[in-house]
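in:
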């Protein structure tokens, strides 16, 4: 929702569509591990619900949205 349905981003929320799949997966892992905390907690809460397999599967889909 924050990144918009097309993952195009808005205001200070970054565009995710077209990002490198490895980068997307790494950032999701960083949020889950609480190594990245610049999100007011939204991504941390979301990432806590994702498995390693979920992150791997989501990354190519997000990349393909551009």
């Amino acid at each position: 929702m924050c990144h918009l349905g097309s993952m195009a981003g808005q205001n200070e929320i970054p565009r995710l569509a077209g990002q490198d799949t490895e980068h997307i997966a790494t950032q999701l892992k960083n949020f889950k591990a609480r190594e990245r905390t610049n999100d007011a907690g939204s991504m941390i809460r979301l990432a806590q619900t994702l498995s390693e397999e979920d992150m791997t599967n989501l990354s190519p889909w997000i990349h393909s949205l551009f």
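note: Residues 21-61 form one domain.
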